Amino acid sequence: MKNPFSATAKALRTIGTQAKVALTGTPVENNLSELWALLDWTTPGLLGPLKVFRDRYARDVESGQDPQAAERLAALVRPFLLRRKKSDPGIAPELPPKTETDRAVALTKEQIALYEAVVRETLAEIGRSAGIARRGLVVKLLTALKQICNHPAQYLKEQGGTIAGRSGKIELLDELLDTILSEDGAVLVFTQYTAMARLIEAHLTARSVPAQFLHGGTPVSRREEMVRRFQDGEAPVFLLSLKAAGTGLNLTRAGHVIHFDRWWNPAVEDQATDRAYRIGQTQPVQVHRMIAEGTVEDRIAEMLKRKKDLAESVLSGGEAAFTELTDAELADLVRLQVSPR
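The structure corresponding to this sequence follows.
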């Protein structure tokens, strides 16, 4: 429905009715056109045609260039929206507190060497490219750098190589898990990369840490069994694919949520965190977001925070926004700003 050009949206618009109600947990996930699609169906004409809405409101709000644009749009749509959050008074008073922490980690010497080499070689290639080819190279660069920040073995596509001692994130993960498990706690570990989850799974197996991994290919019956084992305390570490397991699961035994890497918008991360922080949770929840300091992850984290603060909405289209940066802006985004340990 949030895509006005989808077959579902087109079919819904053909149904005649006296009243329409749209129910969603994320009215804006990628850009403000999604909000337009919902309101243009429930209240046709309120925001005008999509092109007019983009020109009059969306571009200024999404870019942050006009702080009053968000206020004008909010005032216009407020009478037609009923928003409720778990944190609102009286909605879920039984929910315990939630603490969110950004955990800065340092790159290893191997990660630094890989990071600098990829930046140097890919920026030179981008400088010689244009159009779609250039956009593709930018996405490829960002993906490679995020993988290097996770672990060299992920970027290098190693099979069966050494995992310990090569990644600052793995070192921090070990420290967190040692503390959590010593207190008989349980933890969810989210990553957007199946390959990285496999590496973590192998690493934890080598350390005799009981863990299980749920991903997009996990059969429904197996998913239900894994959830039961986690909730019953049989497997206190639950590795989860962010997109495959970010919704629809009740994992309230977890008192900790670790985001091993960052997705392109905070709404997806929040939905993943809500597998643990939901009605029925009785213990405080601590959220740990791992960020490789001085890298592109640092700058992405800053951008995501600005987007989340601005009208509490996700106001751009993920990595697509980065493909339009100039060469100089892109170089500043990916420049490494740390020294070897």
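The CA atoms of residues 126 and 134 lie 6 Å apart.
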